[in-house]
Each structure stands twice: as C-alpha cells, then as structure tokens.
Design a protein that fits this description.
With 158 residues, the protein is of the alpha+beta class. It contains 4 helices and 5 strands. A 5-stranded mixed sheet has the order 1-2-3-4-5, sandwiched between helices. The longest helix is centred in the first third of the chain and has 15 residues.
C-alpha cells in the first residue's frame, strides 16, 4: 500500500513478518530514545515477535520510501462500545529524523486510515505528548478529535 499525498514522497506500508524484527527493533529503540522512554531490548523483542506472530493483536508495518525503510507504524486492536465495535490504537508511529518534515507521517496516517477501513475498524485512537504541540496540531488537522480525557495506565505484573 502506498501514498503520494505529500510532494516528493511515495510512502508505503509493508506488513512486517517474523523476519523483520531485526529491522524494526533499532527503529523502536530510536523512538524510545527520542522520547526518553525506558527500553529493555529483550522485552521489546519479545513484544514485537508476539505482535507479528498474532494478527488478532494488531499489525506492525515498515514504512518505506522505495526500498529504504524510514520508519514503522503499529496498530493495536481493541473493542469499544462507545465507537460501536472494533477499534485500533496507533500505538507507535516513527519516522527516522533525517526523513521528517517531508509529509511522510501525514501520508502514513492516511494509509493507516485506509487500512483501518479495510479491516472494518470503527475508529483509530492515538496519543500525543502534551508538549508535542506540532504533532497534536497535525492530528487535529487530519480529523482526530481531542475528547479532553486523560489516558491513565496501570502496569500489571506478568
């Protein structure tokens, strides 16, 4: 699947398979470093393999420009009474720093929306860091609505 919504970009998504973990993991590490999130390689490797191996959980995609992998995107599936059925959370969307500012993220979000419709999803959810006003403005322009709710999380022990 590809898009040429942004001038000079033809971003496409390629569903990740079991052999793609070595390609995704360095990108995941860069994403976590960028935001200062804790990163434990073994945990992330296990989670990526679990996601790739079970289509009921969601989908991991590599973001490519031609043959060059420039990022990744992950949709995690859920179900919502409020939205009338199956939904997905854009769990992570990352474009390498040297390729940002060229419309790739915008194109990828459009592709994720197309994929969501193809998968019969009722809604896409995402979160944005409060200080990341540029990303929040982009998401709003693309039709995402801020319901002025807070996402609260409680980690559960394995």
């Amino acid at each position: 699947m590809s898009s040429s919504d942004a001038p000079g970009t033809a971003a496409r998504l390629r569903a990740a398979g079991p052999g793609d973990a070595p390609v995704i993991l360095p990108l995941v590490h860069a994403f976590y470093e960028h935001f200062g999130y804790p990163y434990v390689e073994e945990q992330k490797a296990r989670a990526v393999q679990e996601l790739i191996g079970d289509p009921a959980l969601g989908v991991a995609w590599l973001v490519a420009l031609g043959e060059e992998v420039v990022g990744y995107a992950i949709l995690s599936f859920s179900f919502s009474l409020e939205f009338g059925g199956r939904t997905a959370f854009v769990d992570e969307l990352f474009v390498v720093p040297e390729r940002r500012g060229r419309g790739i993220g915008t194109a990828v979000l459009g592709l994720l929306e197309e994929e969501g419709r193809r998968l019969g999803l009722r809604a896409l959810h995402l979160e944005s860091e409060a200080a990341n006003t540029g990303a929040t403005a982009l998401y709003t322009r693309l039709g995402f609505v801020d319901y002025h709710r807070r996402l609260l999380t409680k980690r559960l022990a394995p």
